[in-house]
Amino acid sequence: MAKMLLKAGKIFDGESFIDADILIENDKIIAIDKSIDGGGAMQINCSGCIISSGLVDIHTHLLEMGNNSFGFPADMATIPFGVTYAVDACAEDTVVSNLDRLCVQTAVFVPIIIKGDSLDYEKMEQRIRLYGERVVGIKVYFDESLKNGTTEQHFRLACKFAQDKRLKVMVHCSYSPLNMEKIVDILQSGDIITHSYHGAYHTIAENDYLAYKKAKEKGVIIDAGMAGGVHTDFAVLKNAIEKGCIPDVISSDITCFSAYMRGGIYGLPMCMSIARICGMKEIDVFKSVTLNAAKAVDKEEWFGLRVGVKATLSVMAWGDTQIDICDRAGNSLISEKGYVCKMAVKNGQIIYRN
Known about the structure:
Elements: E1 3-12, E2 17-25, E3 28-33, E4 42-45, E5 49-53, E6 55-60, H1 74-78, E7 83-88, E8 105-111, E9 114-115, E10 118-119, H2 121-131, E11 135-141, H3 152-164, E12 168-172, H4 180-186, E13 192-194, H5 206-218, E14 221-222, H6 234-242, H7 256-261, H8 268-277, H9 282-288, H10 291-296, E15 313-326, E16 332-346, E17 349-353
Helix pairs in contact: 4-5
């Protein structure tokens, strides 16, 4: 029997941090306690690290989902960053059986397709059938700068389509023709606004953060959707955090462009680092990439760090790493410290170690 003992880590259980060891046997967690004698178990010193359930990135663009123009290889975009679960936010046509070969577990948002002046329901239905149980929702690019022809009417029709299918809506809101308050009014509880801290017009700060307050009341999920500095204005994010308007979820929106432009180190840990540097509490940072993220896409089974469950977890450290990133507005964020993935475990097996 294979045993592994993670010693002296700080465990995030979804609500708090506790100092404890974790004993894994085969594919399951068999003990969590202050001081465990693992016998003949392989011991790994996790001193100074946070051990959490495997990280969840709900906004990615993965090559294997047919994103040939800007998708990034799935396992490269996730596993070295401690991400064991990822959602592609614009899944196109692909060979779905190939997804089972990935190390990272995946789900998808199907993009709305506009044909003429209306939605191409046939194409969307086709992709929903193609991906089956992996489909968690519909993705709407509600962005005038993209010149993709999406109007308020298209947005409302897409929301109705998703509602009828009992699917979520994820709406890309940068440069939206509507302010965020009106977007919240159209969305249903459980729907997601991504790129919520953008610096274009109709920002989250309008009317004293009224859109944020209405979203919290209605149950609409606020996703940071960092996209490096492309769809996140660091000044907007910092000011919002200072006002207590923190994201429910932090996601990367990683693409082939963002991954390599920042030295190959851009991923969810850098997004977590940005949020912490901007003032977000560490406990809220970890909640936003584990429990909250899993709930946001109706995949609560993706969160689990307790005795008896399969051992899929991430070991993260706040350590030496160079963060030097600039957003579209010209705000620079520089730090010698940030989150680094030290190890990722899937079903009791080490799949990455730094």
